Predict the 3D structure of the following.
Amino acid sequence: MNLNSAVELLRDLLRIDTTNPPGNEEKAALFIQDFLRREGVSSEIYQAVPGRANILSRIKGRLSGKPVILLGHTDVVPAKREEWSHDPFAAEVSDGFIYGRGAIDMKAQVICQLAAFIDCARQGTPPKRDIIFLATCDEEVGGNHGVEFMLEAVPELKDASFVLSEGGSMFDENGSVHAQISVTEKKLSQFIIKASGKGGHGSMPHGDNANEKIVAAAQRILSYKWPLKAMPVTSAYLDGVLENQSIGNMKFPGLKEALRSKEWKNYLERNEIYNSILRNTVTLTILKGGEKVNVIPSESCAYFDSRLLPSETHERFFAKVKKLAGDDVVIERIGEKIPTPGPSRHNTLYFQGIKEAIESVKGNIPVLPFVMTGATDMRYFRDLGIPSYGFFPVTLTKGEHMRMHSKDERISLANIREGLDGCRAIINFLASDRIP
Ligand SMILES: [Zn+2]
């Protein structure tokens, strides 16, 4: 598929509002099905509940069993029109960028994977194993109607040898580019603290104020510094990225050593990406308490979004939070997503093959395993022991990356070209005889 067709296809997909909730991804699934039909490729739609649909298409391999899955999701997070400079669902092109909610997360990748899939289907030689294109719904809200539903509806997916999906990309840090292939992700572990007290008149403080209890407990929770930890994946990543970094005349000594140095610890903590891949993070996101300036509230609460290192357990984490929070508040755990599997290994032939594919389109850049700070549908596959990597071969700066889930999300036309070439190179590898 050429660049223009891919760009128009992406713009059409971005114009389908699949904000989740409520989702309405069936429209996106039908749109993809219609495109595949025009290309002479069959597909099947699996509807979990009305309006929420997944689409699966397949290129038959020479051997049966152990399919390779190109996984994507068609839902997007909400966008507030008034915060955007372009309508988030109009897919306008401006200054070489396509603007739209889902441009990065992850409709562009869905289209590039679809384009590479179609190109592979047109080739004379079939792949060694079936290649499955799967676009699911409901990823942004946990995947119950999407991947979780599909694993039951199509049990063969549980037999996959490999899953490629979202999470990593090529990262441009002040002109120096490296590739991040996400092989694991942090664990979602959100909670609420709640306090109650005696109501009363604001003019007569009595020391039993629900808001004051919440503020004190929140302060203790937030001021705790979770230990910085070097996991094998983060060591491999940071040792690669910071290889030539120095503070003054102190060369980066490797992650393990750096965590023993005050200067390097400061350096790592100040970078919000490094900080969040090295420790558990706890973020206060919602505060609720009080309605009138002269009334002491009797109920109050605060919500925290916390993300744990893959090696952390919920039990250990909450034992510590409980201690920090103290006895004046109760803790309610929410949004705990199970499963929470360990990392996919990165010394695999899949990693090697993708690395070679990246080098074929981007030249010799460091290709490193990465920890995603957010959660994705890949956890369902990793939980089954299936190697699952997050990677979309486009080069993003931190500024572009941060637009994801934020305002003015966009992707450049140059990125789409890279994405098409890169996905094609990766799928050529996944179709080859090197796959088990
Ligand atoms: Zn996503």
